[in-house]
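TASK: fixed-backbone design
INPUT:
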């Protein structure tokens, strides 16, 4: 299997929040230990954008290769019916899909988070207030910390980040 290169840094930060090793006297601890991450690259090389076709292909790949949970820390306002079909496939196969509600600070729907088969996650700050950047709408299922989150970065150090990408884990 070829290694997946993170040319943007977002994936490294999300992965750190999920699975950074604990009890090693260095750095941070992720939300879980002993997790196996199936890293799937879906963004356009060197850019902060993606094609729906790559996201869809990634969903099917994850489901067909044993994923229990899929995290989609991405989104747009377009409710692509082919993405919905892939997410419905994940649900049929008992794969939980969690997605970030978006970082516009508005009452707008972002997909895939706003599809019924997905758990949509918004962000709260350290005082349990909705983060100023977090989208909110009737499709947001839960909120979790997403402000001032310390995580790993591509420079092999740590960064403090904000975003619903880091609460949807």
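OUTPUT:
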């Amino acid at each position: 299997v070829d290694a997946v290169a993170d040319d943007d840094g977002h994936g490294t930060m999300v992965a750190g929040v999920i699975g950074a090793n604990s009890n090693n006297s260095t750095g941070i601890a992720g939300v879980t230990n002993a997790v196996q991450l199936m890293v799937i690259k879906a963004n356009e090389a060197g850019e902060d954008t993606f094609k729906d076709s790559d996201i869809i292909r990634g969903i099917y790949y994850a489901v067909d290769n044993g994923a229990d949970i899929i995290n989609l820390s991405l989104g747009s306002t377009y409710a692509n019916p082919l993405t919905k079909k892939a997410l419905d496939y994940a649900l049929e196969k008992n794969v939980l899909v969690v997605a970030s509600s978006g970082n516009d600070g508005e009452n707008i729907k972002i997909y895939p988070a706003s599809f019924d088969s997905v758990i949509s996650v918004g962000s709260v700050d350290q005082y349990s207030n909705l983060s100023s950047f977090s989208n909110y709408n009737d499709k947001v299922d839960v909120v979790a910390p997403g402000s001032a989150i310390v995580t790993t970065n591509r420079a092999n150090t740590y960064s403090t980040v904000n975003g619903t990408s880091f609460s949807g884990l």
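COMMENT: The helical segments are 10-19, 52-64, 81-92.
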